[in-house]
Amino acid sequence: MRRADEGVATVWTAIAVAALVWLGAAACWLGAAVAARHRVEAVADLGALAAAAHAADGPAKACDRAREVADHQGAEVTDCHWDKRDALVEVRATRTPVPGLPPPTAHARAGPVGLPS
Question: Is 3 inside a domain boundary?
């Protein structure tokens, strides 16, 4: 004789496994997005420091140096300008870590190296 609730445990287990797999995938996507954001922030910092280190060469050459550093790190400088003696660099990742989300961006500021404020 069969009972009406036979096989219900299998259905609930399948639902629980599907939910866990979805949660794991969402956690991986979130981790990839956070890691990409941190990477772009580091590139912005490096680009601003590179520009500040070459401030004596002039703003154009200093910004070129920031672009070169960002290019080597797999990002692109979207804006580089100066506020008094500080380099302000904005960087965007060249590709998005999570499909459907825009590439992460970051900005950084650094002053000239070896000069008093």
Answer: no
- Chain-centroid distance of CA 31 in Å reads 11
Which range marks the domain in which residue 36 is found? 8-110
Q: 47 and 66 in contact (C-beta within 8 Å)?
A: yes
Domain membership of residue 1 (yes or no) is no
Q: How many domains does the chain have?
A: 1
Of 10, 112, 94, the residue nearest 55 (C-alpha)? 112
Q: Which residues of 71-105 are buried (b: 16+ CB within 10 A; e: fewer)?
A: eebebebeebebeeebbbbbbbbeeebeeeeebbb
Give per-residue pLDDT as tens, 83-95.
888 899 999 999 8
**Is residue 73 situated within a structural domain?**
yes
